[in-house]
Design the sequence.
């Protein structure tokens, strides 16, 4: 059981968030600097497990641009809670993003990130072998297992680096997380369990589907496609999304494939979002998936709700234009 929690926490620290296309900074912090954004937002994620148990995640971010000095700062905080085990994982990160202009249309955004991770377990919610009475079938309230006294909080420093190259139509980037391979073991006597380096690559493309302003759809109508591919140890994660931005309204599909050393599964989901003035409200739902040939493979249902607020000073000059890739705010 103890090894399971260490392994789960190692993966859980990567996040359960699915909306990578709108919260790209979660996998590549250089996204905080795209188009000199000044923005903040919150996201709530809930995954349904077997027996009505759930894993809940909360995410907050804020980005501010210092245009005259060609850099941006980004702050995000991710928190995961699993009530039935008493698992709580929290990690705030601060990112520094520098802007380099390649030409009139292309910008390069390298960044470095410093994170402070903290994980803890409530041992009172864990069940150890010596608490189970095979004769009576009852559970003892306390465990005498010596490992209980060895379980402590896990606190660590986490370093990362990333870059993005983008124009008003395309984007590609890469990121490396856990450069220092922090130790995340709950066992105070174990210093050998480290978090593997996570390598990720991103790509996106956006194009206008109403270039002639036909009345059949809003003036600003685009298709935004996004991909993120990650590798962490033996784990692989591929996320794809296709979103139609129809003026202030957005609707999209996403597909996710994950493979560990033991299994792989696919998620398929639907997202919708609505913008009003500086605010954007959205939700995403991923449908549960069970492998018919391997009943141990189960991908739970997931629901996400988010709210963002853009306080960029020139946003009102773009009224009605909700394109995701833009360079006009750099000037």
Sequence:
């Amino acid at each position: 059981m103890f090894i399971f929690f260490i392994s789960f926490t190692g993966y859980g620290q990567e996040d359960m968030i699915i909306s990578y296309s709108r919260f790209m900074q979660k996998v590549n912090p250089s996204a905080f600097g795209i188009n000199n954004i000044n923005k903040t937002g919150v996201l709530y994620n809930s995954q349904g497990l077997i027996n009505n148990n759930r894993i809940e995640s909360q995410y907050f971010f804020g980005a501010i641009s210092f245009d005259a000095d060609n850099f941006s700062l980004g702050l995000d905080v991710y928190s995961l809670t699993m009530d039935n085990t008493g698992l709580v994982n929290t990690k705030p990160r601060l990112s520094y993003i520098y802007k380099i202009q390649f030409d009139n249309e292309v910008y390069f955004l390298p960044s470095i990130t410093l994170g402070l991770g903290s994980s803890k377990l409530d041992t009172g919610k864990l069940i150890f072998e010596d608490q189970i009475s095979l004769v009576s079938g009852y559970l003892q309230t306390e465990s005498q297992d010596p490992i209980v006294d060895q379980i402590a909080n896990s606190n660590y420093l986490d370093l990362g680096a990333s870059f993005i190259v983008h124009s008003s139509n395309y984007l590609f980037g890469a990121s490396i997380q856990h450069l220092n391979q922090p130790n995340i073991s709950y066992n105070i006597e174990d210093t050998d369990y480290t978090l593997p380096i996570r390598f990720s690559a991103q790509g996106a493309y956006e194009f206008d589907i109403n270039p002639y302003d036909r009345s059949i759809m809003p003036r600003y109508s685009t298709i935004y496609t996004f991909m993120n591919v990650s590798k962490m140890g033996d784990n692989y994660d591929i996320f794809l999304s296709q979103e139609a931005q129809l003026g202030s309204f957005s609707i999209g599909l996403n597909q996710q494939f994950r493979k560990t050393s033991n299994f792989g599964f696919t998620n398929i989901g639907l997202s919708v979002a609505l913008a009003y003035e500086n605010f954007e409200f959205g939700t995403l739902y991923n449908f549960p998936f069970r492998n018919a040939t391997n009943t141990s493979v189960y991908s739970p249902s997931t629901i996400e709700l988010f709210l963002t607020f853009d306080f960029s000073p020139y946003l009102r000059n773009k009224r009605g234009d909700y394109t995701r890739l833009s360079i006009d705010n750099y000037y």
User: Anything to note?
Assistant: DSSP finds one helix and 17 strands in the chain.
